[in-house]
Amino acid sequence: MAIRIGIIGAGNIGSVHAAQFSQLGELCQITAITDVFLPLAEQRAKEYGIAEVLASPEALIQSDNVDAVVIGVPNQYHAELAIQAIEAGKHVLLEKPMGINADAARQILKASRSSDRVVMIAHQMRWESVPMQIKEQIDRGELGHIYTAKTGWYRRKGIPGWGTWFTRSDQSGGGPLIDIGVHMLDLALYLMGNPKPVSVYGATYAEFGPKRKGIGTWGKPNWDGIYDVEDLATALIKMDNGSTLSLEVSWAVHMDTDNTPFVHLMGTEGGASYRGAQGKLLTEKFNKPMEVPLSKPENDENERLRLSRHFLSCIQEGKQPITSAMSGFTNNLVLDAIYESSRTGNEVKLDWNL
Ligand SMILES: NC(=O)c1ccc[n+]([C@@H]2O[C@H](COP(=O)([O-])OP(=O)(O)OC[C@H]3O[C@@H](n4cnc5c(N)ncnc54)[C@H](O)[C@@H]3O)[C@@H](O)[C@H]2O)c1
Asked: Is 15 in the pocket of ligand 1 (CB under 6 A)?
């Protein structure tokens, strides 16, 4: 039977999810949508042929016509809605970051552990072609032990929605670190083989946003709003197996950057680099450095479509998603530690207690 999907949040990402799931008609059907701003939910319902617009997230979560809930609302509301949905017996596809902070993520993880429902975090970069090609080589052992890695995403002038929820820490939890840094952290840890992070040293800066500089094109600014988050973050994360990861992200910076996300993996037998739609495998052979270029195939399908299909197949087959609640919690723990390290000036040990 087709899985019945309900979407909470009809904004940018809610619309992206609607576009993906509506292409998977043989596997699922979007039966309901809601948003605090109902006219937007009505508009999306028309665009994607969704039968019901429900008046509130609670009504959608309790609906008998919904098996799985997609949550695409500001970070502040992730935990309360995800927990309500899990407790109502729904499967959950939750946007990143899993929680606005590690405590919120911990609550979601606990709820998911006392239920048999699928809880998946939407990290579409794991489904991009070049990272998938790199993962295949890692799984074949071609890189050996990955002992250090570097990941990041420098946007030169990309502050999203100045003054909206994006730039208010009480609603977003932070700036580029929690917005785009969480994607890079998630991807790098996954490619490194999910080592357990144990400590973090980090620093964050706000040199553009407070001066209303570095504004990007994503989201409409609200000049009466608040900007109280960082616009650049840098950190070194140490793992229990001795490996290290350096993470660097910005929404705005004076730097010669091509604005693309990157991961560099350095292993005992080989290395791999990912940069946007391109990548490289690197090693030494016949006493010479050798490289194999990687690229995204021209007719490649959208990575978000692969992500949506994975969510549906986890529900059908009762599997754990690769971006599980545990991986979401891990990301939130690291992010909290980076913010704390920046505040205190000290290295922070991760608190794995549940
Ligand atoms: N995976 C990605 O690459 C990606 C990209 C963009 C955004 N996101 C994530 O998606 C989430 C939403 O971001 P966005 O860009 O779509 O924001 P947005 O502001 O465009 O949309 C959010 C929508 O949620 C609605 N909303 C707010 N509170 C609500 C509530 N309590 N119940 C129901 N609806 C509510 C708003 O009216 C708005 O329409 C965030 O967590 C963000 O981090 C992920």
From this structure: no
Residue minimizing CA distance to atom 31 of ligand 1: 77
Instruction: Point out which residues pair with 7 in neighbouring strands.
Output: 33, 70
125 CB under 6 A from ligand 1?
A: no
The backbone torsions φ and ψ at residue 121, rounded to the nearest 5 degrees and listed phi first, read -100, 140
Of 332, 350, 344, the C-alpha closest to 202 is: 344
94 close to 82: Cβ distance less than 8 angstroms: yes
Amino acid at 5: I
Pair 29, 56: CB distance under 8 Å: no
Q: Determine the residue type at 102.
A: A
- φ, ψ of residue 288 to 5 degrees: the values are -130, 150
Strand partners, 317: none
* CA atoms of 235 and 249, how far apart (whole Å): 9
Q: Which of 295, 308, 299 is nearest to 91 (CA)?
A: 308
Of the candidates 5, 62, 72, 2, which has an alpha carbon nearest to the alpha carbon of residue 32?
A: 5
Look at residues 167, 119, 93, 145 and name the one whose alpha carbon lies nearest to residue 318: 119
CB count within 10 Å of CB 269 equals: 12
Judged on CB neighbours under 10 Å (0-12, 13-18, 19+), 30 is: buried
Per-residue pLDDT tens digits for 265-307: 999 999 999 999 999 999 999 999 999 999 999 999 999 999 9
Distance separating alpha carbons of residues 200 and 349, to the nearest angstrom: 7
Tokens encoding 40: 């937007």
Q: How far, in Å, CA of 289 to CA of 129, rounded?
A: 24
Q: Which atom of ligand 1 is nearest to the CA of 15?
A: 16
What would the pLDDT profile of 212-254 be if each residue is shown by its tens digit? 999 999 889 999 999 999 999 999 999 999 999 999 999 999 9
